Amino acid sequence: MGEFLWRSVVLGVAATALLDIWALFLQRAFGIAPPNWAMVGRWVGHLPQGTFVHADIGKAAPVTSELAIGWVFHYAVGIIFAAALLAIWGLGWAHAPTFIPALIVGYVTIGCGWFILQPGMGAGIAAVKRPNAMQIRALNILGHTVFALGLYGAALLVRP
User: Fold this and answer.
1) Domain residue spans in the chain?
2) What pTM was estimated for this model as a whole?
3) Which has the closest alpha carbon to 12: 103, 93, 102, 83?
4) Per-position DSSP letters for 26-50, written without gaps between them
5) Residue (of 131, 125, 129) closest to 111 by Cα position
6) Residues 17-40: what's their mean pLDDT?
7) Distance between CA atoms of 14 and 108, rounded to whole angstroms?
8) Which of 6, 16, 44, 74 has the smallest CB count inside 10 Å?
9) Which alpha helices (DSSP H) does the chain contain, by range?
């Protein structure tokens, strides 16, 4: 159990950090704004009151420490998805990692954004309510491919 937990944390944090580095690259190279983790934190902060869907998260009441909540949530989700990868494919995968399982998990994370987070924050399913929905979708696919590469690369780096 200890190996499962530490590998989940290491792989999840590494893959999420690579995703954040990717976002910084996109911002510096192309002027694409990185995700606003404060708004994600605001969404998470409203969940305990039973509010799962907002018309526009930017107009929802601010939540204390929403930026910190958003960042913690972002990394916690990365760790949870790394744990899911290890739970499905086993620790044997971590000892001899292959890319396809990491890619499958990376693409499942796209679905969570498209069908849970974006609608919950008021963007609609797969950001359909945003004027740049196709760009958002393309960036989601690219970003979560980077997340998958992070899972795989981290597994290669820490394999026994």
Assistant:
1) 2-158
2) 0.94
3) 83
4) HHHHH-PPPP-HHHHHHHHHHGGGT
5) 125
6) 97
7) 18
8) 6
9) 2-30, 37-46, 66-89, 91-95, 99-112, 118-120, 133-158
